[in-house]
């Protein structure tokens, strides 16, 4: 440990970093401040991407739950890289890990899919496989993008469907048709409000905002309605159960009336981009039963939800013992992207699922350390506890303030306001108070802290929630709930 | 430099690495050897990916042009991660760079698209923009996968087409249609033999092997024939010119008879996966003129060809001054993936092209060092010279051995045999002699060394080429050319 301390101190001396978390956020400018505005103007000269940047981060100075921007503002981060940051900023164990000497060879050159490192099989087996959801004992790792994970899940579902349908190797005629772009007439069923990425097939299954779909070709694939759940669930149980049953009946109707076979159904345990909608476990089990009844695979998209912030490593664990997905897609918090799948789904031929960079050992080394910290510090339990505290406190604010529809698992939470204007004003107000929060759907807020968010951070957050609400109300926003 | 030497020596002492390149390959087992076979068996238990692995690499021991496998075989690498490895293995400058202290913060946590590092705009401007092809003064960086670069190029072309066609913002009706998966009827034109990746839209534009297309839905997009060029080009000029004109006429016919508008044409300067086919600059300029005449963008896929191994940084520079692509897609040797594009193509709205990891600073730091080494060591010039030497020598072997159709730019070369059996036997024989070569198309060989391949390596390679051919011939393969 002496060596570790020395290395971390070296890192801190080299970089004028905060030595430990501050006691509270501290804002010295608005966002963007003068330096931030200058960087945005610079980047706008040569890239469209500047428009999606919230602020520029001084990664050397950021620490724990606090992100420090280019203008020196110290911000409590409850959005955390769109739910991708597992242990906050510059976690000492993560920094220590970078000095382990294991990274150098993978930094000096990338590993390639055709000639992987001698430790790659062991790394995949020891780091990734212990995370496999029940029965999904095979794994593939791809290029690091959740959209690609979903797309590979579709390809796996199509290949499996055709294998069963043909019952034989493809004929010369099948091959000729494929080479002439006469594709198989197969589809993936998705749900209103779902978000599965920006690739062409993924945006076909995405039903959140027009920006992801407008002006682009799409595949003619079916979608089904998602239940309109009223919160709290148990106080609206009869409405909710009826709603879930109605939607399950719709799913069955889509299967029965489908003009093209449905090879897979894709669903998120919480529709994160689509407004953190979720239903009861019964609904998901119902979807699963219908998928299996009609010969389709159940693909669970855990790109946003996987990795522990729901209080379980996989969000679909909340569905209970009957949960039986065929494929689980992952990315973000897991550092690498890919699929866990049932072994019988393995494509018959090599190169059916392939790219030249199947997995990045650097990110697997990170994941190994993240898991260690999660275990040692009991972070799933902490996340569950802090989440409960947040949820109760947010619900307690509901009668007094225009907050409603508090929902979610663990710290993977959301709440709504009565209008998009309210939500936007609130995001701005919270940032003024030094809290980075993200919009959710059209008029909600996502709570997405990393796994090291403790009760003291939750208290700081809740204090600022109430302060921000009072600020907005004092400016004359209408209190009446929609 | 004393510090640098100390660091590199530390690396070498920590890792039982070869201190410098050996004088020649050295094989002690067949491939896979016993340890390699054991690893393959291990990985086969939990992943389909083991089937596409050639051998496992001891990345600590590999050095320069020599890759060392798990069984201790020292192999001259002329395939180099499917053309993705720019400076060979463990280049001293690359290792030195990993000790610079700049990597740590990006290893401890990934940068996110919404909150990039304070140095990100400067890094993109100073490292990437100097590489911009003429007039393509904007750049976006995405998740590291070439297939995604091509897909984003398509999306950019579609968005641009619709912007011009509509001449206004999308109406409520346009948006409703998009949200109901009634996509725009737009297409991308591609060429027989082209390979643009495995995503659904990309495999639609891929026309190499059935494995990438069979059993999958595809978009109903057009393709055009690619000229059947005879080599050497100048000795078959009248055939070749006629062939190119015929194909250009076909391209025009596709445009004229297209049922759905063609928003873009995608083409590789050398069809790498499709058998290293290329045509004369006149053909590409002809395609460019037709694309622009009919209102489509020219998308040049430089995922395999970009980065210097053709003797120019971009392969399309070989087309001369008239070359005027609208979008150039890159990945592989550039360490990051993305697009250079003409500024007027920038999508009107944010999030039209987006994912949560737009670019990886670690890989940009690598690219900076790679460019430095390329400049200091004059590697483009060396690649041109070594390539010429290889090409001349391979052509000189042609009358005596069944090698034909030698083609390519720089060291980005290929040659054919008379049958797939010949090519397969040759790949095996070369590996026995300690040279890693890759298949090309159905019966060819790709030459894809990294940029540090010197005349002495070329000599070693050519010696083994001749030896391997004699070995195969002595086993009774027919000499008669097809």
Automatic annotation (TrEMBL), chains A, B:
- Quote the InterPro entries the UniProt record gives: Aminotrans_3, Aminotrans_3_PPA_site, PyrdxlP-dep_Trfase, PyrdxlP-dep_Trfase_major, PyrdxlP-dep_Trfase_small
One GO CC term on file: mitochondrion
Needed cofactors: pyridoxal 5'-phosphate
Species annotation: Blepharisma stoltei
Q: Tell me the protein family, please.
A: Belongs to the class-III pyridoxal-phosphate-dependent aminotransferase family.
* Gene Ontology BP, a term: gamma-aminobutyric acid catabolic process
**Annotated SUPFAM superfamilies:** PLP-dependent transferases
Pfam families to which the protein is assigned, alphabetical: Aminotran_3
MF GO annotations = pyridoxal phosphate binding; transaminase activity
Family annotation (PANTHER family) = 4-AMINOBUTYRATE AMINOTRANSFERASE, MITOCHONDRIAL, AMINOTRANSFERASE
Signal sequence: where? none
Q: Which keywords does the record carry?
A: Aminotransferase, Pyridoxal phosphate, Transferase
Among Gene3D superfamilies, the record links this protein to:
Aspartate Aminotransferase, domain 1, Type I PLP-dependent aspartate aminotransferase-like (Major domain)
The name on file for this protein is 4-aminobutyrate--2-oxoglutarate transaminase
């Amino acid at each position: 440990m002496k060596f570790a301390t020395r290395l971390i101190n070296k890192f801190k001396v080299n970089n004028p970093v905060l030595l430990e978390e501050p006691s509270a956020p501290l804002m010295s400018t608005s966002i963007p401040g003068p330096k931030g505005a200058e960087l945005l103007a610079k980047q706008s000269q040569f890239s469209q991407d500047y428009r999606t940047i919230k602020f520029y981060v001084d990664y050397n100075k950021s620490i724990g739950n606090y992100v420090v921007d280019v203008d020196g503002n110290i911000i409590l981060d409850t959005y955390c890289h769109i739910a991708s940051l597992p242990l906050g900023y510059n976690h000492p164990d993560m920094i220590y890990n970078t000095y382990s000497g294991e990274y150098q060879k993978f930094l000096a050159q990338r590993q390639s899919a055709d000639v992987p490192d001698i430790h790659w099989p062991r790394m995949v087996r020891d780091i990734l496989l212990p995370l496999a959801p029940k029965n999904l004992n095979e794994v593939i790792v791809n290029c690091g993008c959740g959209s690609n994970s979903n797309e590979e899940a579709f390809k796996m579902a199509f290949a499996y469907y055709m294998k069963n349908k043909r019952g034989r190797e493809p004929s010369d005629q099948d091959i000729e048709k494929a080479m002439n772009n006469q594709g198989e007439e197969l589809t993936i069923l998705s749900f209103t409000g779902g978000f599965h990425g920006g690739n062409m097939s993924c945006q076909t299954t995405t039903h959140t905002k027009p920006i992801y779909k407008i002006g682009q070709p799409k595949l003619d694939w079916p979608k089904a309605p998602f239940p309109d759940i009223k919160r709290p669930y148990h106080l609206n149980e009869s409405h909710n159960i009826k709603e879930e049953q109605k939607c399950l009946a719709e799913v069955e109707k889509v299967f029965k009336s489908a003009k093209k076979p449905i090879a897979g159904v894709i669903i998120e345990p919480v529709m994160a981009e689509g407004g953190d909608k979720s239903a009861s476990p019964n609904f998901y089990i119902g979807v699963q039963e219908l998928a299996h009844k009609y010969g389709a695979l159940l693909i669970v998209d855990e790109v946003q939800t996987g990795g522990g912030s729901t209080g379980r490593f996989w969000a679909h664990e909340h569905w209970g013992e009957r949960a039986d997905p065929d494929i689980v897609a992952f990315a973000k918090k897991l550092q690498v992207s890919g699929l866990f799948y049932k072994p019988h789904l393995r494509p018959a031929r090599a190169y059916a699922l392939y790219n030249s960079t199947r997995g990045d050992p650097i990110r697997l080394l990170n994941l190994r350390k993240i898991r260690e910290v999660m275990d040692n510090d009991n972070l799933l339990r902490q996340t569950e506890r802090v989440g409960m505290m947040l949820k109760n406190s947010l619900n307690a604010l509901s009668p007094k303030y225009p907050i409603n529809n508090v929902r979610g698992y663990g710290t993977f939470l959301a709440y709504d306001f009565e209008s998009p204007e309210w939500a936007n004003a609130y995001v701005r107000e919270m940032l003024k108070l030094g809290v980075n929060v993200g919009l959710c759907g059209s008029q909600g807020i996502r709570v997405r802290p990393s796994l090291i968010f403790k009760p003291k951070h939750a208290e700081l957050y809740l204090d600022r929630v109430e302060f921000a609400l009072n600020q907005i109300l004092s400016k004359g926003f209408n209190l009446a709930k929609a």
